[in-house]
Amino acid sequence: MTHHDVVVLGGGSAGENVALGLAAGGRDVALIERDLVGGECPFTACMPSKAMLRSGEVRDLLSRAVDLGAATHPVAPSPPDDTFTHAAARRDELVDHRDDRQHAQGIRDAGATLIRGDGHIVEPGVVEVGGERHTYDELVVATGAADVRPPIDGLDRVQAWTSADAWTTTRRPASLLIVGGGAVGCEIAQLYARFDVAVTIVEAVDRLATAEPPEISALVAGFLSDAGVRVVTTTQVDQVEEANGGVRAHLSTGGTVETERLVLATGVTARVDGLGLDRLGLDVSDGMTIDEHCRVVGADHVWAAGDVTMVAPFTHVANYQARVVVENILGGDATTDYRAVPRTMYTDPPVAGVGLTPATARQRYAGVAVGRADLADLPRTSTEGAAGGLLLLVADTHAQVLVGASAVGDMADAWLHEAVLAIRARVPLPVLRDTIHAFPTYAEAYDVALDDLLTANDGDP
C-alpha cells in the first residue's frame, strides 16, 4: 500500500483545485480520476456551451444584418450558410478537442500523484484503485454529479441526449425536444433555434427559469418564443417511443411531439454510487451533508467539495469550496457563506441572480422591500440598440441591506456582481445608493431600482 497525506476522489473543478492547492501547501496528495482531469466544465459543459452560444449570437446578428440589407437594397446578400459545423470546430479548438493532457500535466507539475481509474473506499483510511490500495490521513470526495433521468415510460428504449451531448455534437439535427426549462434547457433551446433547428421545450411547472422571479421567467419565455422556440409549460412528457428515425413524445396535456433528437435537461444528482461511503458509516441515500467547513457530517477526516455536495451545482461554488477545504486541511479555520452565490443563464440576453427572490425573502424576513428598474429607460440600452430588460432588488428593511437580486438584460451576468458584493459584504442601502455609476452604463439601473426600493412598501409584489 502507498500512503498519502490526502486522497482526492474525483478530478473535476473541485478535486483538481484541491489537489493543486494542497500540493502547493506541501502535502502528499493523490488525485484519483477515471475520466477527464478538469471534469465536465472545460470539456463538455461550461466552456463548450459558452463557445457555441457565442457562435449562435454572432450568427443571429449576421442574419439580422442580411434581413436589414434585404429591406433596404434591391439586391441583398444571401442569408448566411449554416455555420454549425464551423461553430463546432471553433468550440473543439477551444476545449483542446477534449484532451486533458494539459490538466493532467498540471497536477504532476504541482507535485501531486495522478491515478487513473475508479476509486472506492474499502475501509476507513484505505482507498482501492484497480486492485492497488492507497492509505490516507484525509479524504476529499469531489466526484461531481450525474444527470437525472426522469421517469418517462419508454425512455430506456430510445436514444436521448444529455446536455453534454447537445453541447459537444458536430451534427445539427433538424428538430429538438428539450425536457426541462431550467438554465441549461433554455440555453440549449436558444442555441439550436438560432441555427434554424425546430425546438420545443417542455417544462412540468408553469414557467421557465424557476430560480428567478416570475417577471424574469416571463421575459425568458418571451425572448425564446421570439427566437422561434415553442415553449410548453405545465406539461410533462409521459411516454416516448421511436418514430420515423427519431422520437415521438406523448405529452400529459394530450398530443404528441415528433423530434429528431430528445434532450434531457432535468437536473443533476450527487455521484456517490459505488464509492464505498457506507464503509465510513455514511448513509448517502439522500445525498451527502457537509458542515460550514466542508467536512462531511458523520465521518472523521472526510471532506467534500463541488457538485457532489449539491449545495449549488456551479463551477464557481466548486472552486470556492475547494479553497475552503484546502485552507482547513492546511490548518486553517475557513467557513463557507452561501448568501451571495451568483447564478447565471447565458442566453441572449443573459439572466443573472443572487441571493433570495422576493417570494423566498418574505418567507425569511418580516420586512421586505422590492425595487425595480426597466432597462429600456437606460441611455446605455439606447446606444447599444438592446431590447431592454429588468433589474429587481430585494432588501431586508429591518437590517437595511440587500438580500437578493435578479436581472435579465444585456451583459447582466457581469453587472449583477455589484449586487453579489453588496449582499456578501452587507453594504448598507444608503451607501449602495450613494455609489457613483459611470454614464452611460447598465450599472445605472441600480440607481433607479434603489430609489424604487427605498420608497417601496412591504408587500409590493
Sheet with most strands:
7 strands, mixed
State the end-to-end distance.
62 Å
What would the principal axes of the Cα set say about the shape?
globular
Strands, count = 21
Mean pLDDT: 95
Total helical segments: 15
Overall SS class = alpha/beta
As a percent range, the share of strand residues is 15-25%
Low-pLDDT windows of residues? none
Q: Give the helix level as a range of percent.
A: 25-40%
State Rg.
24 Å
Concise synopsis of the structure shown:
This protein is an alpha/beta fold.
Notes on the protein architecture:
By secondary structure, the chain is of the alpha/beta class. 33% of the residues lie in helices and 24% in strands. The strands form five sheets. Strands 1, 2, 3, 4, 5, 6 and 16 form a seven-stranded mixed sheet that branches. The mean pLDDT is 95.
Labels describing this entry:
single chain, 461 residues, alpha/beta, seven-stranded mixed sheet, five-stranded antiparallel sheet, 15 helices, 21 strands, globular
Please outline the helices and strands.
Elements: E1 2-9, H1 13-24, E2 29-33, H2 40-43, H3 46-72, H4 84-94, H5 101-109, E3 113-116, E4 119-123, E5 126-129, E6 132-141, E7 145-147, H6 163-168, E8 175-179, H7 183-194, E9 198-202, H8 214-226, E10 230-232, E11 237-243, E12 246-251, E13 256-259, E14 261-264, E15 268-270, E16 302-304, H9 315-329, E17 342-345, E18 351-355, H10 358-364, E19 368-374, H11 379-384, E20 390-396, E21 401-408, H12 412-415, H13 417-425, H14 429-433, H15 445-455
Parallel strand pairs: 1-2, 1-6, 2-3, 6-16, 8-9, 8-14, 9-10
Antiparallel strand pairs: 4-5, 5-6, 7-15, 11-12, 12-13, 17-18, 18-21, 19-20, 20-21
